[in-house]
């Protein structure tokens, strides 16, 4: 799978925060209504996220019928959203809150409805407020609890992604958005 993404050559290493959850620990997610990871989002992806080794995050996701794009296959935007979500959690492993500045996805194989996906995202490095990430997704066999586990040799690679996440101060970033909504924009 080839990809075009301008990753600067002079990135600083992304260091794992001392307070980052231990590898394998379930991550709490952004909020119960988050489209990507919220368990209460009725049309959401319901990604389950876990801390990985180093500055990495893994996720598992069942490809549900409501994710259909082409007949019997996942919509590309759904897979892009899953990558956005799993890569969006990578900066938290460095103790940073970031939002997506740039997201790029390379689709390598169709993903049938009903399969389980395993995603893994890592930090490539940091530069000032920017965190550069990459991620991969595989179709995997369901684990003992019926949900995807880490891909072995049988995992089928289906897509890869790159992201640029920009560090924000959540209070001022989302405070400004909320103020804009109060001044006229409607939530639907
Ligand atoms: C409580 C839970 C909280 C945490 C909650 C986290 C929730 C995450 C949810 C999943 C992720 C999402 O979907 S987030 C939702 C989608 N994304 C968004 O809504 C973001 C909308 N965009 C923005 O708000 C803004 O454009 C920002 C914050 C990204 C950047 O604006 P800014 O703060 O003014 O910073 P700015 O100076 O422009 O940029 C900083 C550096 O980044 C670079 N940069 C900025 N954008 C780009 C870009 N598209 N491509 C290349 N480079 C870029 C600049 O060149 C600069 O580099 P240099 O000069 O240093 O070289």
Automatic annotation (TrEMBL):
Keywords attached to this entry: Apoptosis, Cell membrane, Cell projection, Cytoplasm, Fatty acid metabolism, Hydrolase, Lipid metabolism, Membrane, Transit peptide
CDD domains for the chain: PaaI_thioesterase
InterPro entries on file: HotDog_dom_sf (IPR029069), THEM4/THEM5_acyl-CoA_thioest (IPR052365), Thioestr_dom (IPR006683)
Annotated ranges, domain Thioesterase: 72-140
Gene Ontology CC terms: cytoplasm; membrane
Topology of this chain in the membrane: Peripheral membrane protein
Compartments, record wording: Cell projection, Ruffle membrane; Cytoplasm; Membrane
EC number per UniProt: 3.1.2.2
Molecular-function annotations in GO: hydrolase activity
Catalytic activity, as annotated: (5Z,8Z,11Z,14Z)-eicosatetraenoyl-CoA + H2O = (5Z,8Z,11Z,14Z)-eicosatetraenoate + CoA + H(+); decanoyl-CoA + H2O = decanoate + CoA + H(+); dodecanoyl-CoA + H2O = dodecanoate + CoA + H(+); (9Z)-octadecenoyl-CoA + H2O = (9Z)-octadecenoate + CoA + H(+)
Similarity section: Belongs to the THEM4/THEM5 thioesterase family.
Protein name: Acyl-coenzyme A thioesterase THEM4
Species lineage: Bacteria, Bacillati, Actinomycetota, Actinomycetes, Mycobacteriales
């Amino acid at each position: 799978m080839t990809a075009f993404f301008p990753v600067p050559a002079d990135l600083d290493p992304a260091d794992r925060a001392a307070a980052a959850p231990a590898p394998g620990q379930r991550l709490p997610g952004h909020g119960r209504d988050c489209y990507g990871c919220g368990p209460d989002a009725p049309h959401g992806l319901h990604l389950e996220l876990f801390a990985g080794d180093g500055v990495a995050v893994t996720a598992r996701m069942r490809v549900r019928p409501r994710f259909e794009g082409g007949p019997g296959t996942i919509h590309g935007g759904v897979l892009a959203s899953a990558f956005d979500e799993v890569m969006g959690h990578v900066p938290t492993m460095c103790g940073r809150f970031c939002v997506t500045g740039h997201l790029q996805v390379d689709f390598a194989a169709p993903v049938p409805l009903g399969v389980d996906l395993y995603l893994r995202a890592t930090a490539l490095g940091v530069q000032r407020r920017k965190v550069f990430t990459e991620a991969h997704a595989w179709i995997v066999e369901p684990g003992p609890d019926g949900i995807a586990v880490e891909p072995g040799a049988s995992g089928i690679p289906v897509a890869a992604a790159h992201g640029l996440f920009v560090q924000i101060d959540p209070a001022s970033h989302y405070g400004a958005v909320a103020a804009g909504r109060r001044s006229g924009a409607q939530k639907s």
